[in-house]
Amino acid sequence: MMTETRAATILQILLGTTAVPKLVKSKKDPFETLVVTIISQNTADRNTARAFENLSKQFEITPEVLANAEISRIEACLRVGGLYKSKAKTIQTASKIILEKFHGSLAPVLSLPLDEARKMLTELPGVGPKTADVVLLFSANQPTIPVDTHVNRVAKRLGLAPANGIYEAVRLSLQSLFQPKDYLAVHLLLIAHGRKYCKARRPHCIECPVNNYCPSNDLGGKHD
Ligand code: SF4
User: Fold this and answer.
1) Cα torsion at 2, 219, 145, 35 (round to 10°)?
2) Can you give the pLDDT at residue 23?
3) Are 155 and 58 a contacting pair, CB within 8 Å?
4) To the nearest whole percent, how much of the chain has pLDDT over 70?
5) Fewer Cβ neighbours under 10 Å: the N or C end of the chain?
6) Contacts of 197 (CB under 8 A, 6+ apart)
């Protein structure tokens, strides 16, 4: 079966069998998305949500407010997650830059062509390719697929990305196999699938709904 056909089949099966995570359901404001994504780096979802909730209770989530907030108060809000001091500093520095360089709004950046927008976003502190892609996909509907650890692992096991591919190779491979209208679904479904079945250690290949289409399926459960 051609990889494109297999990819389409996998998407259809996952759409019919996989619940999409609630975590990302409505973070549309680009600055909020940016802040949440910075908080989420190396942090469990539950703690990310708690830290962001703490921050939202204390501050209006705008570059102006966070640029001028006392750093110790931002730190206190983020303390439930990892690396809270450095993240507080990153958020405040990014806020100042957005305020000074972009007049407090990411909207003009997000409306640039994708590559240009990615380049400008990744010049902000704490913003690597994945964070930039999350902001661009979720808040600007730009045609990109952020590759987090789950997307990377599942895409490679499913043979939808080169086995040794780095971030860009995985992103571009996935984007070539799916239509832009499906990029958000692909991102969310691969994460959900990675969490439920295609775990880093001991994937549940026997129960996996796409095991018939997976070149890495190991129904003997021998994955390490
Ligand atoms: S068959 Fe196994 S390795 Fe392949 S996607 Fe499913 S859980 Fe992952």
Assistant:
1) 180
2) 46
3) no
4) 95
5) C
6) 203, 204, 205, 207, 208, 209
DSSP 8-state secondary structure symbol assigned to residue 80: T
Site residues for ligand 1, CB cut-off 6 Å: 157-158, 197-198, 203-205, 208, 210-211, 214, 216-217
pLDDT tens track for 118-147: 999 999 999 999 999 999 999 999 999 999
CATH architecture, domain 30-140: Orthogonal Bundle (1.10)
**Which tens digits make up the pLDDT trace of 160-201?**
999 999 999 999 999 999 999 999 999 999 999 999 999 999
Range list of H helices, the chain: 3-17, 30-40, 45-58, 63-68, 71-78, 84-101, 107-110, 114-121, 129-140, 149-157, 167-177, 183-196
pLDDT at residue 82 in the model: 83
Atom 2 (ligand 1): residue with closest C-alpha?
Answer: 205
**What is the length of the chain?**
224
Tell me the domain boundaries of the chain.
3-21+146-213, 30-140
Shortest-distance atom of ligand 1 to CA 210: 6
